[in-house]
Specification:
The complex is a heterodimer of chains A (427) and B (185). Chain A is mainly alpha-helical and 427 residues long. Chain A contains 22 helices and four strands. In chain A, strands 3-2-1-4 form a four-stranded antiparallel sheet, sandwiched between helices. In chain B, helix 2 runs parallel beside helix 3. Chain B has five helices and eight strands. Chain B has an eight-stranded mixed sheet with strand order 1-8-7-2-3-6-5-4, with helices on one face. The longest helix of chain B has 15 residues. Classes of the chains: A mainly alpha (427), B alpha/beta (185). At the A-B interface, helix 10 and helix 12 of A face helix 1 of B.
Chain lengths: 427, 185
Amino acid sequence: MSPGRNTALAGAALVAFALALRAWGVADIQAMTEDESLHVAQAEAFASGHGVDWAWWSPPLFYELLHASMRTLGPGPWGRRLENVVLGAVTPLLVALLGFALFPDRRRIGWFAAVLLAADPLHIVLSRFAFEEIQAVFFFVAAALAIVYAARGRPTLILGAVSLGLALASKHYFPLAALALMVFALTEQPPKAPRRSVALRLGLVAAAVYVATYLPWFARGYGLGELVDFHLDVLRVERSLMATSFSDHALLSASGTAGAWFLVPSMLAVVLEPGQAASRYFVLGRNFVTWLPALPAVACVAFLAWRRRSRADLFVAAGFGMLYLPLLLAGRPIFIHSAVAVLPFAMFAVARAMDLLLDSHRALAITWIALAFARLPRISIRSRPSVGFLKRCTGPSSIGWCSSTRASSDPGRAGRALRSHAILRTC
Amino acid sequence: MFAAVLAVAHLVGHNARVVLPRAKIVHCADPVEALADWRAAGVRGRTLVHAARRISLDNPSGPATPANFISQAVRDGIVRRIFHVIPSADWPEVEHNVKSLPGVLHSGETYRLVDKGMPIIVMRLADLHAVSESVIVDVDVDRYTEREVAELAQQLRRGAPRSDLVTWYGRSTPTHLEAWREPWP
Protein backbone atom coordinates (compact mmCIF):
# COMPACT_ATOMS: atom_id res chain seq x y z
CA MET A 1 0.00 0.00 0.00
CA SER A 2 1.41 3.42 -0.95
CA PRO A 3 2.29 5.94 1.79
CA GLY A 4 -0.28 8.36 0.37
CA ARG A 5 -2.99 5.74 0.59
CA ASN A 6 -1.95 4.88 4.12
CA THR A 7 -2.18 8.54 5.09
CA ALA A 8 -5.62 8.86 3.49
CA LEU A 9 -6.87 5.81 5.33
CA ALA A 10 -5.44 7.05 8.62
CA GLY A 11 -7.01 10.46 8.01
CA ALA A 12 -10.38 8.85 7.33
CA ALA A 13 -10.02 6.81 10.51
CA LEU A 14 -9.18 9.97 12.45
CA VAL A 15 -12.30 11.73 11.17
CA ALA A 16 -14.44 8.66 11.88
CA PHE A 17 -13.01 8.49 15.42
CA ALA A 18 -13.61 12.20 16.02
CA LEU A 19 -17.09 12.00 14.48
CA ALA A 20 -18.06 9.05 16.64
CA LEU A 21 -17.04 10.90 19.79
CA ARG A 22 -19.02 13.96 18.77
CA ALA A 23 -22.08 12.48 17.09
CA TRP A 24 -22.90 9.45 19.18
CA GLY A 25 -25.94 10.16 21.34
CA VAL A 26 -25.86 13.85 20.48
CA ALA A 27 -29.67 13.96 20.35
CA ASP A 28 -30.08 12.16 23.70
CA ILE A 29 -30.73 15.53 25.28
CA GLN A 30 -33.58 16.92 23.22
CA ALA A 31 -34.06 20.07 25.23
CA MET A 32 -31.84 23.06 24.78
CA THR A 33 -29.04 23.43 27.26
CA GLU A 34 -28.92 26.78 28.96
CA ASP A 35 -26.40 28.24 26.53
CA GLU A 36 -28.16 26.72 23.56
CA SER A 37 -31.38 28.54 24.35
CA LEU A 38 -29.34 31.73 24.46
CA HIS A 39 -27.63 30.95 21.16
CA VAL A 40 -30.87 30.01 19.43
CA ALA A 41 -32.39 33.35 20.46
CA GLN A 42 -29.25 35.06 19.20
CA ALA A 43 -29.45 33.16 15.91
CA GLU A 44 -32.99 34.38 15.36
CA ALA A 45 -32.03 37.96 16.21
CA PHE A 46 -28.79 38.07 14.20
CA ALA A 47 -30.49 36.62 11.12
CA SER A 48 -32.55 39.82 10.97
CA GLY A 49 -29.57 42.03 11.80
CA HIS A 50 -30.54 42.55 15.43
CA GLY A 51 -28.49 41.97 18.54
CA VAL A 52 -29.42 40.65 21.95
CA ASP A 53 -28.19 41.39 25.44
CA TRP A 54 -24.85 39.77 26.24
CA ALA A 55 -24.12 38.81 22.65
CA TRP A 56 -24.66 41.82 20.41
CA TRP A 57 -20.90 42.39 20.34
CA SER A 58 -20.21 38.92 18.92
CA PRO A 59 -19.54 38.69 15.19
CA PRO A 60 -22.55 37.27 13.35
CA LEU A 61 -21.43 34.26 11.34
CA PHE A 62 -22.00 31.52 13.92
CA TYR A 63 -25.53 32.71 14.55
CA GLU A 64 -26.30 33.09 10.85
CA LEU A 65 -25.14 29.53 10.16
CA LEU A 66 -27.02 28.24 13.20
CA HIS A 67 -30.15 29.93 11.92
CA ALA A 68 -29.64 28.42 8.45
CA SER A 69 -29.04 24.99 9.98
CA MET A 70 -32.22 25.17 12.05
CA ARG A 71 -34.21 26.28 9.04
CA THR A 72 -32.87 23.35 7.04
CA LEU A 73 -32.89 20.59 9.64
CA GLY A 74 -35.52 21.88 12.02
CA PRO A 75 -35.20 23.33 15.50
CA GLY A 76 -34.40 19.97 17.14
CA PRO A 77 -31.03 18.84 18.48
CA TRP A 78 -29.62 17.93 15.07
CA GLY A 79 -30.60 21.30 13.62
CA ARG A 80 -28.78 23.01 16.47
CA ARG A 81 -25.78 20.73 16.77
CA LEU A 82 -24.94 19.12 13.43
CA GLU A 83 -22.69 21.95 12.24
CA ASN A 84 -20.48 21.70 15.30
CA VAL A 85 -20.46 17.90 15.19
CA VAL A 86 -19.16 17.98 11.61
CA LEU A 87 -16.73 20.89 11.94
CA GLY A 88 -15.48 19.57 15.27
CA ALA A 89 -14.80 16.18 13.68
CA VAL A 90 -12.98 17.62 10.68
CA THR A 91 -10.79 20.06 12.65
CA PRO A 92 -8.40 17.32 13.89
CA LEU A 93 -7.80 16.28 10.28
CA LEU A 94 -6.90 19.88 9.40
CA VAL A 95 -4.56 19.91 12.41
CA ALA A 96 -2.88 16.74 11.13
CA LEU A 97 -2.46 18.24 7.65
CA LEU A 98 -1.08 21.46 9.15
CA GLY A 99 1.39 19.37 11.15
CA PHE A 100 2.49 17.53 7.99
CA ALA A 101 2.97 20.85 6.20
CA LEU A 102 4.94 22.43 9.05
CA PHE A 103 7.02 19.38 9.97
CA PRO A 104 7.24 17.30 6.78
CA ASP A 105 10.07 15.18 8.19
CA ARG A 106 8.34 14.50 11.48
CA ARG A 107 4.79 13.67 10.53
CA ARG A 108 4.01 12.08 13.88
CA ILE A 109 3.76 15.60 15.34
CA GLY A 110 0.71 16.19 13.17
CA TRP A 111 -0.80 12.86 14.13
CA PHE A 112 -0.20 13.37 17.86
CA ALA A 113 -1.70 16.85 17.84
CA ALA A 114 -4.67 15.69 15.78
CA VAL A 115 -5.53 12.72 17.98
CA LEU A 116 -5.09 14.76 21.15
CA LEU A 117 -7.52 17.34 19.80
CA ALA A 118 -9.92 14.70 18.48
CA ALA A 119 -10.14 13.17 21.94
CA ASP A 120 -9.93 16.34 24.00
CA PRO A 121 -12.86 16.40 26.46
CA LEU A 122 -13.51 20.13 26.13
CA HIS A 123 -13.39 20.11 22.33
CA ILE A 124 -15.72 17.11 22.32
CA VAL A 125 -18.28 18.59 24.67
CA LEU A 126 -18.46 21.90 22.81
CA SER A 127 -18.69 20.06 19.49
CA ARG A 128 -21.80 18.31 20.76
CA PHE A 129 -23.72 21.52 21.41
CA ALA A 130 -24.24 24.89 19.76
CA PHE A 131 -21.18 26.92 20.77
CA GLU A 132 -19.29 29.43 18.62
CA GLU A 133 -15.79 28.23 19.43
CA ILE A 134 -15.83 25.03 17.37
CA GLN A 135 -16.74 26.80 14.13
CA ALA A 136 -14.29 29.63 14.82
CA VAL A 137 -11.39 27.25 15.46
CA PHE A 138 -12.25 25.17 12.39
CA PHE A 139 -12.04 28.20 10.12
CA PHE A 140 -8.87 29.49 11.76
CA VAL A 141 -7.05 26.17 11.42
CA ALA A 142 -8.29 25.95 7.82
CA ALA A 143 -6.89 29.44 7.19
CA ALA A 144 -3.55 28.54 8.76
CA LEU A 145 -3.35 25.37 6.67
CA ALA A 146 -4.21 27.14 3.41
CA ILE A 147 -1.71 29.93 4.10
CA VAL A 148 1.06 27.46 4.93
CA TYR A 149 0.23 25.56 1.72
CA ALA A 150 0.36 28.85 -0.19
CA ALA A 151 3.79 29.53 1.28
CA ARG A 152 4.85 26.15 -0.14
CA GLY A 153 3.71 27.26 -3.60
CA ARG A 154 0.16 25.90 -3.77
CA PRO A 155 -2.66 28.13 -5.09
CA THR A 156 -4.48 28.31 -1.76
CA LEU A 157 -3.89 31.91 -0.68
CA ILE A 158 -7.42 33.07 -1.51
CA LEU A 159 -8.88 30.03 0.23
CA GLY A 160 -6.80 30.97 3.25
CA ALA A 161 -8.02 34.55 3.11
CA VAL A 162 -11.66 33.45 2.88
CA SER A 163 -11.19 31.06 5.81
CA LEU A 164 -9.50 33.79 7.81
CA GLY A 165 -12.42 36.14 7.15
CA LEU A 166 -14.84 33.42 8.25
CA ALA A 167 -12.83 32.82 11.44
CA LEU A 168 -12.80 36.53 12.25
CA ALA A 169 -16.54 36.65 11.63
CA SER A 170 -17.15 33.73 14.00
CA LYS A 171 -15.57 34.99 17.22
CA HIS A 172 -13.26 37.79 18.29
CA TYR A 173 -10.31 35.58 19.20
CA PHE A 174 -8.19 36.03 16.10
CA PRO A 175 -7.13 39.59 15.23
CA LEU A 176 -3.58 39.20 16.61
CA ALA A 177 -3.24 35.67 15.28
CA ALA A 178 -4.49 36.86 11.89
CA LEU A 179 -1.69 39.42 11.87
CA ALA A 180 0.79 36.66 12.70
CA LEU A 181 -0.58 34.61 9.78
CA MET A 182 -0.21 37.58 7.47
CA VAL A 183 3.39 38.11 8.56
CA PHE A 184 4.05 34.42 7.95
CA ALA A 185 2.43 34.66 4.51
CA LEU A 186 4.58 37.68 3.65
CA THR A 187 7.86 36.26 4.87
CA GLU A 188 7.37 32.73 3.60
CA GLN A 189 6.13 33.39 0.09
CA PRO A 190 7.90 31.67 -2.81
CA PRO A 191 10.57 34.02 -4.26
CA LYS A 192 8.55 35.01 -7.34
CA ALA A 193 5.40 35.97 -5.49
CA PRO A 194 5.14 39.77 -5.08
CA ARG A 195 4.78 40.49 -1.36
CA ARG A 196 2.53 43.48 -1.80
CA SER A 197 0.10 41.44 -3.84
CA VAL A 198 0.07 38.69 -1.20
CA ALA A 199 -0.63 41.17 1.60
CA LEU A 200 -3.36 42.92 -0.36
CA ARG A 201 -5.10 39.73 -1.44
CA LEU A 202 -4.97 38.20 2.01
CA GLY A 203 -6.04 41.33 3.88
CA LEU A 204 -8.69 42.57 1.50
CA VAL A 205 -10.34 39.23 0.82
CA ALA A 206 -10.48 38.42 4.55
CA ALA A 207 -11.92 41.89 5.24
CA ALA A 208 -14.44 41.50 2.42
CA VAL A 209 -15.65 38.17 3.79
CA TYR A 210 -15.89 39.67 7.27
CA VAL A 211 -17.93 42.67 6.10
CA ALA A 212 -20.16 40.44 3.98
CA THR A 213 -21.27 38.53 7.08
CA TYR A 214 -22.76 41.80 8.34
CA LEU A 215 -25.17 42.13 5.41
CA PRO A 216 -28.25 41.30 7.54
CA TRP A 217 -27.12 44.11 9.87
CA PHE A 218 -26.74 46.52 6.94
CA ALA A 219 -30.24 45.49 5.85
CA ARG A 220 -31.55 47.34 8.92
CA GLY A 221 -30.40 50.58 7.32
CA TYR A 222 -26.89 50.92 8.76
CA GLY A 223 -24.07 52.45 6.72
CA LEU A 224 -20.35 51.74 6.40
CA GLY A 225 -19.40 54.51 8.83
CA GLU A 226 -21.77 53.03 11.36
CA LEU A 227 -19.99 49.67 11.01
CA VAL A 228 -16.80 51.38 12.18
CA ASP A 229 -18.67 53.05 15.05
CA PHE A 230 -20.23 49.72 15.93
CA HIS A 231 -16.83 48.07 16.24
CA LEU A 232 -15.56 50.91 18.40
CA ASP A 233 -18.61 50.29 20.60
CA VAL A 234 -17.75 46.60 20.71
CA LEU A 235 -14.17 47.34 21.77
CA ARG A 236 -15.25 49.80 24.42
CA VAL A 237 -17.94 47.57 25.90
CA GLU A 238 -15.80 44.41 25.82
CA ARG A 239 -13.05 46.26 27.67
CA SER A 240 -15.52 47.48 30.28
CA LEU A 241 -16.85 43.99 31.05
CA MET A 242 -16.07 42.57 34.46
CA ALA A 243 -16.81 39.16 35.92
CA THR A 244 -19.74 40.61 37.83
CA SER A 245 -21.19 41.99 34.60
CA PHE A 246 -22.22 38.49 33.54
CA SER A 247 -25.48 36.99 34.70
CA ASP A 248 -23.78 33.58 34.94
CA HIS A 249 -20.84 34.95 36.88
CA ALA A 250 -20.67 31.94 39.22
CA LEU A 251 -19.70 29.72 36.29
CA LEU A 252 -17.46 32.46 34.96
CA SER A 253 -15.59 32.81 38.24
CA ALA A 254 -15.25 29.04 38.50
CA SER A 255 -13.71 28.98 35.03
CA GLY A 256 -10.82 31.09 36.28
CA THR A 257 -8.62 33.44 34.34
CA ALA A 258 -6.95 32.36 31.13
CA GLY A 259 -3.69 32.17 33.06
CA ALA A 260 -5.10 29.37 35.23
CA TRP A 261 -6.51 27.18 32.46
CA PHE A 262 -3.27 25.29 31.84
CA LEU A 263 -2.01 25.43 35.41
CA VAL A 264 -4.91 24.44 37.66
CA PRO A 265 -6.18 20.87 37.38
CA SER A 266 -9.89 21.45 37.76
CA MET A 267 -13.04 20.79 35.86
CA LEU A 268 -16.55 22.15 35.94
CA ALA A 269 -19.80 20.25 36.01
CA VAL A 270 -22.98 22.27 35.65
CA VAL A 271 -26.31 20.70 36.58
CA LEU A 272 -28.45 20.76 33.47
CA GLU A 273 -31.54 18.79 34.49
CA PRO A 274 -31.90 18.15 38.20
CA GLY A 275 -34.05 15.15 39.02
CA GLN A 276 -34.98 12.82 41.87
CA ALA A 277 -33.87 9.61 40.17
CA ALA A 278 -31.18 10.99 37.93
CA SER A 279 -29.68 14.30 36.99
CA ARG A 280 -27.92 15.50 33.92
CA TYR A 281 -24.64 17.39 34.12
CA PHE A 282 -22.84 19.48 31.59
CA VAL A 283 -19.23 18.59 32.21
CA LEU A 284 -16.48 20.85 30.94
CA GLY A 285 -13.60 18.44 31.32
CA ARG A 286 -9.93 18.65 30.54
CA ASN A 287 -7.29 16.09 29.77
CA PHE A 288 -4.79 17.11 32.43
CA VAL A 289 -2.05 14.92 31.00
CA THR A 290 -1.94 17.16 27.95
CA TRP A 291 -3.22 20.46 29.36
CA LEU A 292 -0.82 20.82 32.28
CA PRO A 293 2.34 20.36 30.17
CA ALA A 294 1.03 22.77 27.51
CA LEU A 295 2.77 25.93 28.75
CA PRO A 296 6.17 24.27 29.30
CA ALA A 297 5.77 22.67 25.87
CA VAL A 298 5.10 26.06 24.29
CA ALA A 299 8.18 27.46 26.04
CA CYS A 300 10.20 24.54 24.71
CA VAL A 301 8.91 25.11 21.17
CA ALA A 302 9.68 28.83 21.43
CA PHE A 303 13.21 27.98 22.58
CA LEU A 304 13.63 25.64 19.60
CA ALA A 305 12.37 28.33 17.27
CA TRP A 306 15.03 30.69 18.59
CA ARG A 307 17.86 28.18 18.92
CA ARG A 308 17.38 26.36 15.62
CA ARG A 309 15.89 29.25 13.66
CA SER A 310 12.99 26.90 13.02
CA ARG A 311 10.13 28.61 11.20
CA ALA A 312 7.76 25.74 11.93
CA ASP A 313 8.39 25.94 15.66
CA LEU A 314 8.06 29.71 15.51
CA PHE A 315 4.72 29.27 13.73
CA VAL A 316 3.42 27.05 16.55
CA ALA A 317 4.74 29.24 19.37
CA ALA A 318 3.54 32.46 17.75
CA GLY A 319 0.15 30.94 16.90
CA PHE A 320 -0.36 29.94 20.52
CA GLY A 321 0.97 33.22 21.86
CA MET A 322 -1.11 35.45 19.60
CA LEU A 323 -4.28 33.56 20.51
CA TYR A 324 -3.52 33.28 24.22
CA LEU A 325 -2.22 36.81 24.81
CA PRO A 326 -5.52 38.71 24.33
CA LEU A 327 -7.25 36.24 26.65
CA LEU A 328 -4.53 36.71 29.27
CA LEU A 329 -4.73 40.48 28.95
CA ALA A 330 -8.48 40.48 29.64
CA GLY A 331 -7.51 40.45 33.33
CA ARG A 332 -10.75 38.83 34.44
CA PRO A 333 -12.15 35.30 34.53
CA ILE A 334 -13.12 33.99 31.10
CA PHE A 335 -15.45 31.10 30.36
CA ILE A 336 -13.38 27.95 29.91
CA HIS A 337 -15.06 27.51 26.50
CA SER A 338 -12.64 30.13 25.15
CA ALA A 339 -9.71 27.81 25.84
CA VAL A 340 -10.77 25.85 22.76
CA ALA A 341 -9.45 28.72 20.64
CA VAL A 342 -5.87 28.01 21.72
CA LEU A 343 -6.19 24.22 21.92
CA PRO A 344 -4.95 23.31 18.40
CA PHE A 345 -1.71 25.23 18.93
CA ALA A 346 -1.40 23.99 22.52
CA MET A 347 -1.76 20.44 21.23
CA PHE A 348 0.84 21.16 18.54
CA ALA A 349 3.27 22.27 21.22
CA VAL A 350 2.52 19.21 23.35
CA ALA A 351 2.89 16.98 20.31
CA ARG A 352 6.21 18.61 19.46
CA ALA A 353 7.41 18.01 23.01
CA MET A 354 6.30 14.38 22.82
CA ASP A 355 8.15 14.06 19.53
CA LEU A 356 11.36 15.46 21.01
CA LEU A 357 11.06 13.33 24.11
CA LEU A 358 10.63 10.20 22.00
CA ASP A 359 14.06 10.89 20.55
CA SER A 360 15.82 11.57 23.83
CA HIS A 361 13.87 9.79 26.60
CA ARG A 362 11.89 7.14 24.84
CA ALA A 363 10.52 5.34 27.92
CA LEU A 364 9.37 8.57 29.53
CA ALA A 365 7.76 9.73 26.31
CA ILE A 366 5.92 6.47 25.80
CA THR A 367 4.62 6.61 29.38
CA TRP A 368 3.40 10.16 28.85
CA ILE A 369 1.75 9.33 25.53
CA ALA A 370 0.16 6.23 27.01
CA LEU A 371 -1.25 8.27 29.90
CA ALA A 372 -2.52 10.93 27.54
CA PHE A 373 -4.32 8.48 25.29
CA ALA A 374 -5.08 5.50 27.49
CA ARG A 375 -8.36 6.52 29.05
CA LEU A 376 -9.62 8.83 26.37
CA PRO A 377 -11.67 6.41 24.26
CA ARG A 378 -13.39 4.97 27.34
CA ILE A 379 -14.00 8.43 28.75
CA SER A 380 -15.23 9.88 25.56
CA ILE A 381 -17.72 7.22 24.56
CA ARG A 382 -19.29 6.99 27.97
CA SER A 383 -22.48 9.01 27.89
CA ARG A 384 -23.80 8.06 31.32
CA PRO A 385 -20.91 8.00 33.76
CA SER A 386 -21.61 7.27 37.40
CA VAL A 387 -20.82 9.50 40.34
CA GLY A 388 -17.84 7.29 41.03
CA PHE A 389 -16.73 7.97 37.52
CA LEU A 390 -17.11 11.71 38.07
CA LYS A 391 -14.97 11.38 41.18
CA ARG A 392 -12.33 9.43 39.32
CA CYS A 393 -12.06 12.31 36.93
CA THR A 394 -9.74 13.86 39.46
CA GLY A 395 -7.26 11.39 38.03
CA PRO A 396 -4.94 12.07 35.15
CA SER A 397 -7.69 12.49 32.60
CA SER A 398 -10.98 14.25 32.60
CA ILE A 399 -14.33 13.44 31.13
CA GLY A 400 -16.44 14.17 28.14
CA TRP A 401 -19.86 15.61 28.05
CA CYS A 402 -23.35 15.76 29.49
CA SER A 403 -23.95 12.85 31.72
CA SER A 404 -26.57 11.36 33.97
CA THR A 405 -25.94 10.21 37.46
CA ARG A 406 -28.04 8.89 40.30
CA ALA A 407 -29.24 11.45 42.80
CA SER A 408 -29.05 9.00 45.68
CA SER A 409 -25.34 8.61 45.30
CA ASP A 410 -24.57 12.22 44.57
CA PRO A 411 -21.93 13.82 46.74
CA GLY A 412 -23.16 16.56 49.05
CA ARG A 413 -22.42 19.44 46.78
CA ALA A 414 -24.14 17.71 43.90
CA GLY A 415 -27.14 17.00 46.13
CA ARG A 416 -27.53 20.70 46.74
CA ALA A 417 -27.12 21.28 43.06
CA LEU A 418 -30.09 19.05 42.35
CA ARG A 419 -32.41 21.52 43.99
CA SER A 420 -31.05 24.54 42.27
CA HIS A 421 -28.91 25.20 39.29
CA ALA A 422 -25.35 25.10 40.52
CA ILE A 423 -21.82 24.37 39.61
CA LEU A 424 -19.61 21.59 40.80
CA ARG A 425 -15.96 22.22 40.85
CA THR A 426 -13.87 19.16 41.40
CA CYS A 427 -10.17 18.49 41.81
CA MET B 1 -13.68 42.12 -4.27
CA PHE B 2 -13.37 44.26 -1.15
CA ALA B 3 -14.67 47.32 -3.00
CA ALA B 4 -17.56 45.29 -4.39
CA VAL B 5 -18.54 44.06 -0.93
CA LEU B 6 -18.37 47.60 0.45
CA ALA B 7 -20.52 48.83 -2.42
CA VAL B 8 -23.07 46.08 -1.87
CA ALA B 9 -23.10 46.74 1.88
CA HIS B 10 -23.59 50.46 1.27
CA LEU B 11 -26.44 49.82 -1.15
CA VAL B 12 -28.12 47.32 1.14
CA GLY B 13 -27.99 49.81 4.00
CA HIS B 14 -29.04 52.78 1.93
CA ASN B 15 -31.90 50.96 0.23
CA ALA B 16 -33.18 49.65 3.54
CA ARG B 17 -34.02 53.19 4.67
CA VAL B 18 -37.53 54.19 3.72
CA VAL B 19 -38.01 57.97 3.79
CA LEU B 20 -41.32 59.72 3.08
CA PRO B 21 -41.42 61.57 -0.26
CA ARG B 22 -43.21 64.50 1.42
CA ALA B 23 -42.50 65.62 4.95
CA LYS B 24 -45.33 65.63 7.43
CA ILE B 25 -46.08 66.48 11.04
CA VAL B 26 -48.63 64.61 13.12
CA HIS B 27 -50.21 65.39 16.46
CA CYS B 28 -50.81 62.13 18.34
CA ALA B 29 -52.82 61.32 21.42
CA ASP B 30 -49.90 59.40 22.97
CA PRO B 31 -46.63 57.66 22.09
CA VAL B 32 -48.40 54.45 21.11
CA GLU B 33 -50.26 56.39 18.44
CA ALA B 34 -46.93 57.76 17.24
CA LEU B 35 -45.74 54.20 16.72
CA ALA B 36 -48.92 53.43 14.80
CA ASP B 37 -48.22 56.45 12.60
CA TRP B 38 -44.68 55.30 11.86
CA ARG B 39 -46.01 51.89 10.93
CA ALA B 40 -48.74 53.36 8.75
CA ALA B 41 -46.26 55.66 7.03
CA GLY B 42 -44.04 52.67 6.21
CA VAL B 43 -40.78 54.28 7.34
CA ARG B 44 -37.92 51.82 7.95
CA GLY B 45 -34.25 51.70 8.95
CA ARG B 46 -34.31 55.20 10.39
CA THR B 47 -32.59 57.41 12.90
CA LEU B 48 -35.06 58.56 15.54
CA VAL B 49 -34.78 61.86 17.38
CA HIS B 50 -36.58 60.98 20.58
CA ALA B 51 -37.35 64.15 22.53
CA ALA B 52 -38.68 62.84 25.83
CA ARG B 53 -37.53 62.00 29.33
CA ARG B 54 -37.85 58.20 29.10
CA ILE B 55 -36.19 56.04 26.49
CA SER B 56 -39.17 53.62 26.22
CA LEU B 57 -37.05 50.54 25.51
CA ASP B 58 -38.86 48.08 27.76
CA ASN B 59 -39.47 44.50 26.59
CA PRO B 60 -41.18 44.75 23.20
CA SER B 61 -43.35 41.66 23.60
CA GLY B 62 -47.06 42.17 24.12
CA PRO B 63 -49.06 45.23 23.18
CA ALA B 64 -47.39 48.57 22.55
CA THR B 65 -47.25 50.85 25.58
CA PRO B 66 -45.60 54.20 26.33
CA ALA B 67 -42.84 52.17 28.02
CA ASN B 68 -41.99 49.92 25.07
CA PHE B 69 -43.13 51.65 21.91
CA ILE B 70 -39.57 52.43 20.80
CA SER B 71 -38.32 48.91 21.43
CA GLN B 72 -41.20 47.72 19.23
CA ALA B 73 -40.10 50.16 16.54
CA VAL B 74 -36.55 48.81 16.82
CA ARG B 75 -37.75 45.22 16.69
CA ASP B 76 -39.86 45.95 13.63
CA GLY B 77 -36.96 47.57 11.76
CA ILE B 78 -38.38 51.10 11.87
CA VAL B 79 -35.61 52.54 14.05
CA ARG B 80 -31.90 51.64 13.94
CA ARG B 81 -30.35 54.51 15.91
CA ILE B 82 -31.64 56.95 18.53
CA PHE B 83 -30.73 60.51 19.38
CA HIS B 84 -32.27 60.87 22.81
CA VAL B 85 -32.83 64.57 23.46
CA ILE B 86 -33.27 65.17 27.19
CA PRO B 87 -35.26 68.13 28.56
CA SER B 88 -33.01 70.64 30.32
CA ALA B 89 -34.77 70.17 33.65
CA ASP B 90 -34.03 66.45 33.60
CA TRP B 91 -30.46 66.67 32.27
CA PRO B 92 -28.59 66.63 35.63
CA GLU B 93 -30.37 63.48 36.76
CA VAL B 94 -30.03 61.76 33.38
CA GLU B 95 -26.37 62.72 33.08
CA HIS B 96 -25.72 61.32 36.54
CA ASN B 97 -27.44 58.05 35.62
CA VAL B 98 -25.69 57.69 32.29
CA LYS B 99 -22.27 58.36 33.78
CA SER B 100 -22.71 55.42 36.12
CA LEU B 101 -23.26 52.98 33.26
CA PRO B 102 -20.32 50.86 32.06
CA GLY B 103 -19.02 51.21 28.51
CA VAL B 104 -20.45 54.69 27.89
CA LEU B 105 -18.54 57.04 25.59
CA HIS B 106 -18.50 60.64 26.75
CA SER B 107 -17.80 63.09 23.95
CA GLY B 108 -18.34 66.80 24.49
CA GLU B 109 -21.76 67.10 26.09
CA THR B 110 -23.15 63.91 24.58
CA TYR B 111 -23.03 60.31 25.75
CA ARG B 112 -23.01 57.30 23.46
CA LEU B 113 -24.32 54.04 24.81
CA VAL B 114 -25.49 50.84 23.21
CA ASP B 115 -28.59 48.73 23.70
CA LYS B 116 -28.38 45.29 22.09
CA GLY B 117 -25.99 46.77 19.55
CA MET B 118 -28.16 49.77 18.73
CA PRO B 119 -26.46 53.11 19.35
CA ILE B 120 -28.19 55.65 21.58
CA ILE B 121 -26.73 59.14 21.71
CA VAL B 122 -27.96 60.98 24.79
CA MET B 123 -27.85 64.77 24.52
CA ARG B 124 -29.46 68.07 25.34
CA LEU B 125 -31.46 70.06 22.83
CA ALA B 126 -28.55 72.46 22.41
CA ASP B 127 -26.37 69.60 21.14
CA LEU B 128 -28.81 68.43 18.48
CA HIS B 129 -27.30 69.23 15.10
CA ALA B 130 -27.79 68.38 11.46
CA VAL B 131 -26.92 64.83 10.45
CA SER B 132 -26.27 63.43 7.01
CA GLU B 133 -29.69 61.85 6.67
CA SER B 134 -33.31 62.69 7.23
CA VAL B 135 -34.62 61.60 10.65
CA ILE B 136 -37.97 60.82 12.19
CA VAL B 137 -38.86 62.74 15.32
CA ASP B 138 -41.13 62.17 18.29
CA VAL B 139 -41.64 64.86 20.92
CA ASP B 140 -43.28 64.63 24.31
CA VAL B 141 -44.17 68.32 24.60
CA ASP B 142 -45.25 67.90 28.24
CA ARG B 143 -41.65 67.34 29.33
CA TYR B 144 -40.25 70.55 27.83
CA THR B 145 -40.64 74.21 28.62
CA GLU B 146 -42.50 76.29 26.06
CA ARG B 147 -39.23 77.91 25.09
CA GLU B 148 -37.60 74.55 24.47
CA VAL B 149 -40.56 73.38 22.40
CA ALA B 150 -40.36 76.52 20.28
CA GLU B 151 -36.60 76.11 19.88
CA LEU B 152 -36.98 72.49 18.82
CA ALA B 153 -39.62 73.43 16.24
CA GLN B 154 -37.37 76.16 14.89
CA GLN B 155 -34.41 73.85 14.71
CA LEU B 156 -36.36 71.17 12.87
CA ARG B 157 -37.82 73.73 10.47
CA ARG B 158 -34.28 74.91 9.77
CA GLY B 159 -33.35 71.36 8.82
CA ALA B 160 -31.00 70.74 11.70
CA PRO B 161 -31.66 67.86 11.48
CA ARG B 162 -33.83 67.32 8.40
CA SER B 163 -36.95 65.35 9.19
CA ASP B 164 -39.66 63.82 7.04
CA LEU B 165 -41.95 62.61 9.82
CA VAL B 166 -42.52 64.47 13.07
CA THR B 167 -44.93 63.15 15.68
CA TRP B 168 -45.72 65.09 18.82
CA TYR B 169 -47.92 64.27 21.77
CA GLY B 170 -48.75 65.50 25.25
CA ARG B 171 -51.56 67.06 27.19
CA SER B 172 -50.24 70.60 26.90
CA THR B 173 -50.51 72.51 23.66
CA PRO B 174 -47.48 74.46 22.50
CA THR B 175 -48.08 78.22 22.58
CA HIS B 176 -46.48 78.57 19.18
CA LEU B 177 -48.81 75.97 17.74
CA GLU B 178 -48.34 77.15 14.19
CA ALA B 179 -44.74 76.01 14.42
CA TRP B 180 -46.02 72.43 14.91
CA ARG B 181 -48.43 72.44 12.01
CA GLU B 182 -48.06 71.70 8.36
CA PRO B 183 -46.80 72.69 5.93
CA TRP B 184 -43.61 71.09 7.22
CA PRO B 185 -40.52 72.17 5.29
